[in-house]
Design goal:
This protein has a six-stranded mixed β-sheet with strand order 1-2-6-3-5-4, with helices on both faces. It is an alpha+beta fold. It is globular.
Length: 497
Amino acid sequence: MISSHSTWAAALLFALGCASTAAQSRDPAEAIRVKSKPVAVDPDAWRNEVPKAGASRDVAYPIAAEQTLPNGVKLYFVQRPSPTVELQVVVKAGASALPLGKSGLSALGARMLTEGTAHKSALELSIAAESLGSELEQDAQRDAISVSLEVLSQDVPAALQLLAEVIQQPAFRDADLERVKAEWKDQLVAERQEPTRLASLAALRTVLGPILGAPVSGCDKDISSVHRADLIAWHRAQVTPANTAITIVGNVDPSRLAAQAGSLWGKWSAPQAKPQAPLTPPPAPQGVRIILVDRPGAVQSALFATQLFPKRSEPGFEAREVMSSLFGGLFTSRLNMNLREEHAYTYGARSTLIATRQFGLFALSTSVERDVTADAIEQMLLEVNALHDPSKGKPISIAEIQRAKADLFQALGASLEHSSAVARNVATQFIFGLPLDYFARYKSTLDALTPEQISQEAARVDPAALTLVVAGDRAVIEEKIKAKHFQVEPAAAELLQ
């Protein structure tokens, strides 16, 4: 029996033989001409065709199971196959809840939660976490603080117990506080050497005012004034059961852990935090306001422009996400293509949508070579004008919208790679009171957005309401900016604290 391989080989030899016979029957001169004719091959031809996108795939985002303990503590369980389990405790006690003169207190308080408990010194607490193969991590934002551990499945009960001790029974020892404050203040000094940080500090304080605009990490003066009594009062008022949620993401048994969580967290009692009176940011400027932070000798200028925008709870948030993404969230976004690709002013420019419980911001940022600072500002504002007013010749296109939607959804899918990212998304739902299936329905929410809805949100971007802070060498850039018919004012010292 002849194998298929033999058949294929015979066919190949036959084909080659026919080709040889045909070549021998040609006129010799013709054969020479054929052989001597050069073959034009462009090795870069593939560069002329844009690669086609792959097929879009659906993402089955997990929905957390929710339980509420009698004292108000929320429990969220997300079951997923994973070798480790993420435990995250979130408390709605963020920087926006702090009074004037207490900036940084919530962030410092979150750090001090991990620096010792009533039963463990800072060293003993660190050893306890390391015995679980983990490390206590803490974070502070405008609306919340968090403390988390990542452990193996069999260590989840011990981790849950350790977190209960950290949150409910912090020590706030004076010696630990002074050590942490010294380190904290050094970091504040170091970050204020960064032009981009200085520009954002000045812009947020200008637009939001001294309380809402204070940095989450605080300033040297306010951190220096924090004492143990301040931390105790903050913990008593803000770190309460009604403000707290525990998220457990991984391969766990929710029913068994719910019983343990009830015994560890259900007896915790504290007065309910008093609702904070809403704060109102200062009125928006009437015309572009340019504030200059002098950085003598700086070879680059950091630009940070921002304006007030709706807070997180106001309708249209997802449309604003799409709008921000197409304007400055992608490499192919308008702002980046103008400042980087067309004019080569920068390595990158982006826009950011900030939305908290009390305020929202739309911000633009980049760093440019100092000699083109004025030109970069001019181009940035031209793009803002075109986004605000479609009649300027650049209405939002369907292709832009599709790219932005795809990027937002794919970023959500990528978050499934890490249990910590899933836990953060659950925390977002808790902080802002979103439905449990919010992220599971995110793609359909994006798909339902119309170009008209996105254009309505783009119209909120008001060139006349922008505050633009430039951190750069005043001697080189100020007159060039004024030559573009912009008013420039120096940054007040209090804006940079």
